[in-house]
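Researcher: I'd like a structural prediction for the single chain below. Treat it as a standalone chain; there are no partners to consider.
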Amino acid sequence: MLVLVVMGWLWPREKVETLDMFDQPFYLGIAHDVVHFGRFTDGYRFGPPGGKGVLPSGMRFAPLYPGVVAAAAELDGGLRRGMDCVVDNAWTVSVCPGDARSVRWLQFFELAGFFWLVWWMGGAVGGAAVGWVSLVLALGTAPLLLRSVNYLMTEMTCLLLVTAAMAAGIKAVRGQRCAAWSAAAGALLGLAALTRPGFLYLIPACALVALFGGRRRSVKPALAIAASAALVIAPWILRNRMVMGRASLTYGYDSHTLVQRIAFDTMNWREYGMSFVCWLPDGNEIGRGIAGQRACDRFGWDEHENSFYVLGLRHMLYETLAASGGYANHLSYLLHNYIFRMPVKHVLVSIPLALRGAYVVHWWGFVLFFVCVGWTMRALRRRPLPDFDGVAFLVMALPAWFMLALNAAVAVNQVRYNLMLIPAYAVAGALSLKGLTDTHARRVLGWRG
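Model: Treating it as a single chain, here is the predicted structure.
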């Protein structure tokens, strides 16, 4: 009830953008082809130039979210009209109606489910009081997350799926039908990978956490995670093999993302130092105060033509595609000619990019990042504390840290890629507040005694 009251009060205050904003046309274009032609394509933005009518089958994007949008469009006439408008006006300046209430309501309840899971996980890690404080801290992120509710993009679906997977993992390590809950976690991770391909790498990472991070060393939970995830993903892989001749999750998405990341490796050492400043919350203003009006221009997005992001998205993409002979050889070309030639620089640049993604919800994430690092180290040392289940905390925190590092190494690592840090941050903050109140209570009682 608390979650629904807070969200219901905040949601009407968030602006609803038109359907042609940001990455929404990617998913709407694929959903359009599913509805009208009965096939998964790459959408008009990655189809033939000016592609109208029947596009060839594709596998650039994972299928789950476009499939959900397509199913909703079959029932929601307003969404279908907006979706058709986006495709019919492809690559032109258009303002398509933003009526997509069915998907937005679905995402609203996905977010409500996420907050409920944060409350449950906080209670599992530190007791009832920690659960409630974790929920209150997590609700501080509601304005940002409700903004994502209003976009037809993958954030809310991924956030619910990976958080539910972590909750299932906590149930497993607590010895409650361990194999069954591990299999449930694997299935949820498989669905997350079918929503956003980067989560494919979270499956082996979570299997390793299950293998080495549990209270008892056992291979069964790790096998259950891997097997159930594979069963979920297998039909899409089989489809790609039969239709596209490639037994893989996606094609072209990985190198298209990696080349954007590699562009940041071209920064000089002065720019490298400034990146730690410019990617702070309010970092643009801080950087301008330190080094001048245009100090942070290259670290921004499309509004600055010479930014690293634009360099990777346009110039470097076109150059490397031409040099490699197309997407078939693009990934290996990038690895051999960029990553392997300057591995130290790539790792060093990944550090400020990781910090950029870690500052979830502005200064909220900046503060709780350090708090969460402290509790993660304490849990790794396996030092017993009253009312603190360190193993359960690691099941929640380690996958989020892994994805933060992965996104920093292979992508431009926007904050929205790392929303799965929110549960660990909220629980860590709640544990710290509980520790402070307990210490204060002991001091007061000792003084009175």
